[in-house]
Design goal:
With 378 residues, this protein is α+β, with helices and mostly antiparallel strands. The protein contains twelve helices and seven strands. A hairpin with a 2-residue loop joins strand 1 and strand 2. The chain is elongated, with a radius of gyration of 30 Å.
C-alpha cells in the first residue's frame, strides 16, 4: 500500500511538471503563431471570430510538437527536486529500488507516446483540415478593413483595388478597380465582358456586401479588343463572388493519415489521391507519416537516458557534470530525430531505420541501465 502511494506521488509530480512546462511552451508558441495569423484579418478580410477560431484549432499541433521536450525537462526538474529534498534517499532506504523508479519513468513515457501518436495520427489532421475548411467556406469578408488609403490591394483573386483616401465615415475616395476574373457584377446590368473590367469612381462605400459607387466609369474590353466605356452617376457591385487569396486547398499536414498511408503504399503513378501522382509528393507523404508515428518512439529513449541520473550522486566527484552530459545527450537525441526525419522517404532502408533505431537503442540502453543500477549501491 505504501509503495503504491509512492508510485502515485512520483507519477503525479512528474505529470504536474510536464503539464506546466508543456502549457508554458504552448502558450508562448501559440502567441507567436497567433500574431502571424493576424494577416487573416489584415490582408484577407476575415472576421475576428474566424481568426480566433482558426488560431484555437491550431493549438493541438503546437502541443504535439512540444511533448518530447516538455517530458525531458519535466523529468530533469523532478529528479533534481527529489534529490535536493533527499526524497530519493528516503525511497532507497524504504526498500524502493532504482529500477522501480526507472520503470515508472518508462511507463509515463509509454503513456505520453500513445497520447502523441493519437494526436498526430488522428486529432491534428482532423482539426487542421477543419480550420482550412473554415477559411474555404467563409463568405463573410470585412473587405473595408483590407482596403487602405493610397495603396494597391491585391488581397483578392484576380481583383485589384486602389483607394486614394478613406475618410472618417469609411467612405472611399478616388477609386480604381481592375477585375480580371469577373468577380464583380453590377446589380443593374453587366457591361461588355465581365472578365476584363476596369472601374473608376470618385466616391463609394461598402454596405451589405455591396460596393456602391458614384460618379465614375465602367470600361470593358470585348473579344475584338475594343474598349467600351459606360458613364454612371451611381452603380452597385455585388461582392458575393469576391474571394481572398487565402490558400483554401488542403495541405499535406491537414490530410488524414489513412489517405497518406494509401498514397505511400500505392505503386501506381497515376493514382488520383491527394496529389499522390505529383513528383516528390510520396516522399513528403512518408516524411509526414514518419513525423506522426516515428517521432513519438523517441520519448521512451529519452526516459531511459534520463534515468541514468538516478545512478549518480552530487556528492561524488565529476558526477555533477554527468547530469549536464545526460541532459545534452537527451536533447541531442531529439534534435537528431528531427534531422534524421528530413531523410525519410528517400529510401526504404532510411525510413525503416528511423523507426527501428529508437526501439533498438532503447532496448540496449534499458539493459545497460538495469545492469548499472543493480551494481550500484545507495
Amino acid at each position: 500500500m505504501l509503495k503504491n502511494k509512492i508510485y502515485r506521488y512520483l507519477s503525479s509530480e512528474i505529470l504536474k511538471n510536464f503539464t506546466t512546462v508543456l502549457l508554458t511552451f504552448t502558450a508562448v508558441a501559440w502567441a507567436v503563431r497567433a500574431v502571424n495569423f493576424l494577416e487573416l484579418m489584415v490582408d484577407d478580410g476575415h472576421s475576428s471570430t474566424i481568426y480566433l477560431y482558426y488560431s484555437i484549432l491550431n493549438i493541438s499541433t503546437i502541443v504535439t510538437r512540444f511533448i518530447p521536450l516538455a517530458f525531458l525537462i519535466s523529468l530533469i526538474i523532478s529528479i533534481i527536486k527529489f534529490e535536493r529534498q533527499q526524497e530519493l534517499l528516503i525511497l532507497w532506504t524504504s526498500g524502493l529500488t532504482k529500477v522501480k523508479i526507472a520503470n515508472i519513468f518508462l511507463l509515463i513515457a509509454f503513456f505520453l507516446t500513445l497520447i502523441q501518436i493519437i494526436l498526430s495520427l488522428f486529432i491534428n489532421p482532423y482539426l487542421l483540415n477543419k480550420s482550412r475548411s473554415l477559411l474555404a467556406n467563409n463568405k463573410q469578408f470585412q473587405i473595408n478593413s483590407v482596403l487602405k488609403s493610397n495603396d494597391f490591394s491585391d488581397s483578392f483573386f484576380n481583383l485589384t483595388f486602389y483607394i486614394d483616401k478613406k475618410n472618417s465615415n469609411n467612405e472611399l475616395l478616388n477609386i480604381f478597380i481592375k477585375d480580371k476574373g469577373g468577380h464583380l457584377s453590377t446589380v443593374v446590368d453587366k457591361a461588355g465582358n465581365p472578365n476584363n473590367l476596369t472601374i473608376i469612381a470618385k466616391k463609394g462605400f461598402i454596405d451589405n456586401n455591396k460596393l456602391i459607387l458614384f460618379n465614375g466609369m465602367l470600361q470593358t474590353l470585348n473579344e475584338k479588343k475594343e474598349l467600351k466605356n459606360i458613364q454612371f452617376e451611381k452603380t452597385e457591385l455585388s461582392l458575393d463572388e469576391v474571394l481572398p487569396r487565402t490558400i483554401t486547398q488542403t495541405k499535406i499536414q491537414e490530410t488524414s493519415s489513412s489517405l497518406l498511408l494509401k498514397c505511400a503504399l500505392s505503386k501506381k503513378n497515376n493514382l488520383d489521391l491527394v496529389n499522390c501522382s505529383k513528383m516528390g509528393f510520396k516522399k513528403e507523404t512518408i516524411q509526414t507519416l514518419s513525423r506522426r508515428l516515428g517521432v513519438p518512439l523517441y520519448i521512451p529513449l529519452i526516459s531511459i537516458i534520463t534515468s541514468f541520473l538516478l545512478i549518480y550522486h552530487k556528492e561524488k566527484k565529476y558526477n555533477y557534470f554527468k547530469k549536464y552530459i545526460l541532459f545534452v545527450l537527451s536533447f541531442f537525441t531529439l534534435i537528431a530525430a528531427e534531422i534524421f526525419l528530413k531523410y525519410t522517404g528517400s529510401t526504404f532502408m532510411v525510413t525503416a531505420s528511423y523507426f527501428i533505431f529508437p526501439i533498438i537503442i532503447s532496448i540496449f540502453s534499458y539493459i545497460y541501465l538495469i545492469k548499472k543500477m543493480n551494481s550500484k549501491k545507495i
